Amino acid sequence: MKIWVDADACPGPVRDIIVRAAQRLQVPTVFVANKRLNLPRSEFVSSVQVGAGLDVADGHIAAAAQAGDLAITQDIPLAALLVPKSVVVIDPRGELFSEENIAERLSVRNFMQELRDSGVMTGGPGGFSAQDRQQFAASLDRELTRLRKKP
């Protein structure tokens, strides 16, 4: 099992939680971004710097992640590629993407994109709160525990 992190827009507190979990549980973790990342030295934490461009990091993660891995991303189209591969996907606020909800989430995301493309101001997510950090940490621990128990 590996943890894959779509690191281009990953909040700092989430990155710190992931690093601590990777070290504590000794799970190989790969942060993928199109820029250089400052990560602590660890035998369990690494980074891959991909070229600049739209969805390059997503493409790397989609190609490399395998069934039984865990991915952290807020990119719903990436989640829609990973979920059918039996990759567990959670977003930085702790929401689990699943076979049951990914089609709806992708549909809503595409609808909102159409609105934005037509000039409608839709607003974005609120600021990242302490509650968001706590919810992410709980989801990460729950999913890592579940994945580690799988034969």
Automatic annotation (TrEMBL):
<dbReference type="Pfam" id="PF02639">
    <property type="entry name" value="DUF188"/>
</dbReference>
<comment type="similarity">
    <text>Belongs to the UPF0178 family.</text>
</comment>
<dbReference type="InterPro" id="IPR003791">
    <property type="entry name" value="UPF0178"/>
</dbReference>
<protein>
    <recommendedName>
        <fullName>UPF0178 protein STAUR_6745</fullName>
    </recommendedName>
</protein>
